[in-house]
Amino acid sequence: MRAVPLLKGPAVLACLLLSAAGAGHAQPAASATSGPVTPGIAGVVNAGTPIEVLGEGFDGTEGPLGLPDGAVLFTETRANRIVRIAPDGSLSVYLEQTEGANALALGAKGELFAVLTAPAAIAQLQPVRKVLASGFAGKPFGRTNDLVRSRSGQIYFTDPGATPVPGAATPASPPATGLYWLDRGGQLHLVASDIARPNGVALSPDERTLYVANTAGAAVLAFAVQSDGRLTGRRDFARLAGFRTGPTGPGSGADGIAVDRAGRVFVASNGGIEVFSAKGVALGVIALPKQPQNLAFGGKDRAQLYVVGRGSAYRIATLTRGVDRPGK
Known about the structure:
Layout: E1 2-4, H1 11-19, E2 33-37, E3 50-55, E4 62-66, E5 72-76, E6 81-85, E7 91-96, E8 104-106, E9 112-117, E10 120-126, E11 130-133, E12 135-136, E13 139-140, E14 147-149, E15 155-159, E16 178-182, E17 188-192, E18 198-203, E19 209-214, E20 219-225, E21 231-239, E22 244-246, E23 249-251, E24 257-259, E25 265-269, E26 272-276, E27 282-286, E28 294-298, E29 304-309, E30 312-317
Antiparallel strand pairs: 1-7, 2-3, 3-30, 4-5, 5-6, 6-7, 8-9, 9-10, 10-11, 12-13, 14-15, 15-16, 16-17, 18-19, 19-20, 20-21, 22-23, 24-25, 25-26, 26-27, 28-29, 29-30
């Protein structure tokens, strides 16, 4: 692990690159910069809670993951590394040469799993590297994006295909998209191929419901998880306030999803962090300086919400806690 001091702006990236040449131990964080404050959302966050800016200038920010020691990992996808945020807010390079790792998950024994993008695959990174799946039905994945792992070892992940480019013509044969289930026996199943851009995934606290963000859609989807891991009963769970028409067409920008112990669902979207009850009732929106991409609970007792997006990392003290299980 190589240390990087806590800086803000492009200096963070420069310092990370310098750290790859070899540095000492992680330095304690300076006081985090206070950005905007949160609205009050009952049971979730007090009004006026500062949104701490932990760092900026990262080369891609994705996949936050809370660790048992209170630290949080996130990926710098384009920089090909994983960064660790210590409980005191200091930053250090946790792992390099990660094959474009995007989302992360933990196993019951501390194994680190990841969605890879170069090339697209689902893999275990630690303690040993091994690819678990790299394609389906004889065809490679397009651009695998997010994953969640259940307590029993079921893995659910998404492949939204290529990211739309503003002004680009729609291809005659767009890349296939998919929501997949990798069962405990290593068998891969295609659950749905008709979600326009399946993105973030998360499990309810009791792991009986799987939530899926559709970046191009107006609603978060939900599936019932059967005892053997199969997904059934697809339905619209909640409509997103961030749904609008942009340069690439209509969409909500729905990306990462996190769930708290009360079953509330937190979704990164065009509007910020949209919070819903376990029944899909909108509770409020936390606006951020930049559009969020992914989020996870972490820190002591999982009582802080860590959010990453557009090269920045944020932390918000909450009234609630994340689910007590490995991973997000």
